[in-house]
Amino acid sequence: MQILSFIGFTALVAIISYLATRTTNESSKDGYFLGGRSLTGIVIAGSLLLTNLSTEQIVGLNGQAYEQGILVMAWETLAAITMVIIAMFLLPRYLKGGIATIPQFLERRYDKTTKAIVSGLFLTGYVTIFLPVVLYTGASAINTMFDVSSSFGISENAALWVTVFGIGIIGSIYAVFGGLKAVAISDTINAVGLIIGGLLIPYFGLTLIGDGSLLEGIDILMTSHPEKFDSTGAEDSYVPLSTLFTGMILVNLFYWGTNQAIIQRALGAKNLAEGQKGLVYGAFLKIMGPLILVLPGIIAYHIFDGNLAKADLAYASLVAEVLPKPLVGFFAAVLFGAILSSFNSALNSCVTLFGIDIYQEYIKKEASEAEVVKAGKTFGVFLAILSMIVAPFIANAGSVFEYLQEINGTYSIPILTIVVVGYLTKYVPAKAAKIGLISGVVLYSISQFLVKPTFDTIEMVNGVETVTGNTYPHFLHIMAILFVLNIIIMLIISKIAPRKEAYVQFNSKEVDITPWKYLKPVGALVCMIVVAIYIYFAK
Question: Which single residue of 47, 65, 204, 417 could bond 294 by disulfide (Cβ 3.0 to 4.6 Å)?
Fold first, then answer.
């Protein structure tokens, strides 16, 4: 029954996606890469949610909550404020310029070499970090829920490889052969399922704790573990309170405003108003995020008495424990959809970056639109296979979510720096952007991979020298410091050797850029709700 419901829901999503996209002209660049610039606010919000909420968050963030509690909700709630900022300031500029990729703007603002470097950084980050992490966490969750190892009589390692390739192949079909619109439609359907299924998990978990009473379960959980419901993290926690005002906002600005896999949904909006609606609707969904991404981890801590072998097993173990058996197949299908969403969205963005920014620019300049799309698809298949090979080797990475966020800093802050400087200044030259990118990558790498280990606290545990802590500043603080330093470097270069002519924002007139008239009041409401949540849980 579980397998049948899993296959049935997955097949239903695929059929609906095919029927909804069969009239889209996907031999053209706009049709394939941007869904024909036809996406509405609801579709954008659903696609944003599913692109963001995959198992690297569902598994990883609940794993952090299992260990340290509600303070890790910052990754969700702060994102809501960031999305409002992007809707107001960045998206109007993106749509006015008619860009399909962030590197396209960087070419206009700086030069082709800057665009090529950024495209290369994005592609390297996706294939070596993001895509393998999504595949690994997704495979781990599916393996735990369906006990693939025992069902097929194979080792856990073999089951991991089989599941990784299963997810990778299906996700590749969506991303490489369906284009952005197929990805966005499937995301929207799965978003509904994820919200319903995701809220069922804490519901059944709390009613189990409360012996059939939801309210009693909430009271028992909060009374038994008051330390888990403190929104203010200490300096040695996963998310210290001070980081909310430094690197946390920068990471969110990069992720929601310049990360190609995310912002591509808004770039495909039919007009600015719909794009802004999509971001703000998505912000409200992010406020609900802790119910799905944080609360289950705390519930799992209570139910399993904090005795799980690994924190990242908290979510899948809770699902297997509390969800009624008839619903396991449906929820696994929804979770599978979330896994596919993040994987195929990032892969679709890689295809876009390669086709437009590399193939057409450096390999075959006279290529037709159909040839650009075909080249992108071929490259997508190659990346998918490479990611599937890398994914199983992440098994020993510790906290997967923290690993992902810290490693992403290698390229996220340098890219955000040159985008922000590019829009806020007129005379900073291309040379400054290239130096800013290189210095950002090099300085962050030196900081986190060479200097940070020297601050390890080492103690003797059972006669063995063991790393028990680290006194180096939190990586989010380091990101903020390097962000400011890179801006200063770029501005100094601009003073010494400025552009000869002021940069003028390009107006493509691709879509109507009339703003959504309710953006400011609704955006203000989002910000007030987030602040109220933090005040309520502050201790």
Answer: 65
User: So what's the pLDDT on residue 395?
Assistant: 67
Give this prediction's pTM. 0.81
Q: How far apart are CA 24 and CA 51, in angstroms?
A: 21
Q: Which of 19, 35, 64, 9 is nearest to 193 (CA)?
A: 9
Helix 247-257 × helix 400-424 angle, to 10°: 80
Instruction: Report the half-sphere exposure of 183 (CA within 13 A, side-chain side).
Output: 39
* d(C-alpha 333, C-alpha 196), whole Å: 12
294 Ramachandran zone, left/alpha/beta (phi>0; psi -120 to 50):
alpha
DSSP string, 475-493: HHHHHHHHHHHHHHHHHHH
| Straight-line distance from the first to the last Cα atom of the chain, in angstroms, rounded to the nearest whole number | 46
Q: Which domains, from first to last, does the chain contain?
A: 2-9+39-537 (1.20.1730.10)
Alpha carbons 95 and 509: distance in angstroms, whole number: 8
Query: What token pair was written down for 271?
Result: 């007009």
What's the pLDDT at 364? 81
pLDDT < 50 positions in the chain: 25-36, 179-180
